[in-house]
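Researcher: I'd like a structural prediction for the single chain below. Treat it as a standalone chain; there are no partners to consider.
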Amino acid sequence: MNIVYGVPPKQPKNTWVSFDTEIFSLNTKQMHRPTSGKFGCLTICTGEDVYYIDTIDQRLHHSFDAIEDCVWVAQKSDFDITHLRRWTNIPPRKKLWDTMYIERIMWNGYYDGFSIADQIRRYLDIEVDKSLQKSFETATEMSPEQIQYACLDSYYTLQVAKEQKKVIDDKSFDVWKHIDLPALWAVLDFKGFAVDVDRWVALAEKNRQRQVEIDEQLPFNPRSHTQVKKWFAEHKIVLESSDEEHLQDVIRKNKRVDATAMAQMILESRMYGKRASTYGKDWVDNYIEYEDGVPVVYSEFDINRAETGRMASSSPNLQNVPVRETPEFRECFIARPGNSLVIADYSAQEPRVTAFLSQDKKFMEVFNRGEDIYIYMAKEIFHEDIKKGDPRRAQMKSLILGMTYGLSKYGLAKREGIDVETAEKLLTESFRLFPGVASWMEKQQKNKKYVTTVPGRKCWINPYSEQSKRNVLNSPIQGTAADMMKMAMGRLHEEWYTHSWGFDVPFGICAPIHDELILDVPTKIAQEVSTVLKKTMIDVAEQMCPGIKFNADIAIGSRWSEKH
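Model: Treating it as a single chain, here is the predicted structure.
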């Protein structure tokens, strides 16, 4: 490796070059946000030469001009691009190879480490020392050791990419090219989600007060596992553990009122306490930033962190914000002044994917007739018509989940609070209704190496994991649903500026939550945006799973909770 202090010369078209940045003094709670830190350096590797730029001036712009026609290589490129956009213009491009995200596409489930150090060890058989990485948190200027470290990062990243290129198959590359890469650019243009801070803090205080009220009624600390187990032992109930699973067992199986009431109070105290601490004032202090006086939050969305290829959210995690039991949290997420939220989610997305994968004729026909699959199943099993609010419809949702995720009769009984015999009958009836699903499941269980999503994303199976049988069924369904959502998100991003309002309105997505997209757009165009969004989501789904009619439900409102 040869370190060159300066701008690289113009590189030939399609040359592979890697780049990396080092940023000083980043806020470690929100490293994905370009709101803290100072530029340390940019390194660009063209082969054996690594060009080192440590100032923000025309050299930064000229460096990217010099590699404009090249294939850019980076490890977790969204971090670098987000921060580099503070100082230079980097528009979306097709010639981008991200070593981390591509490594996951190829090996999710097979490996559990995807850092650049992991990849250097795998592909180059070199153990690198990354201990110097933390030194950038407090540094104010580059030391000779840090310069060497930064240049080696770029150098090794390029070598790894070239080795990946030798082994990647066409399907995996197509997943990157048509799904994860467009989704990456969409994520980079997400806007912040506006938050009603006063309401959020008031809700946290309410949850804390509720926890205190419950604790005052208890003769012990409900968060002390030793004290909880001791109380139950004194009342002739032996608890193996005082975690939620075992306390729920007490509630389901024990007929003693005092014991079930105590278990319920412990769980409620912990729930309210967790909500108050996880979604409290610290959440506001750590994550809220202001744009034109509006408090907003930007989550870090990782495009393929889960083994199935599903997106992940962190710092903060918006995918875990409670919804069903406590819609109050989603009431705190709002549209900006003059805007409306456009909220869209696929209707029965995973059951529709299951219908396509299994090619069960009756399953497919239900969707293609436009029927509600859960109401249809309830009618066939209970032999009576039910309406949408009937609790048996929700039970049918769990039943489909049980079918396609390999849930046992014991698991279904526990999930729905029913006896094992009833759960077994429900599962038997569901497979009688849809024999094609049962055949597909049996065939899937023969896969011992890996399974794939419809577009071809590999999900490797660990035969030593107790989850392997479930993953063989779950991964193609959940992974295909995730691929579908990311493709819709990427396509919407690509099409955004083809519409008249797109030139005046920044990209609208502020959060993808599994099968749901939330956009924040000016109220005057909300209806038009919702029409484009719905068409995009349906088009992508029906192209990915031909022969199945999909639907996306749309809501327009001022708060996230209005969709639910």
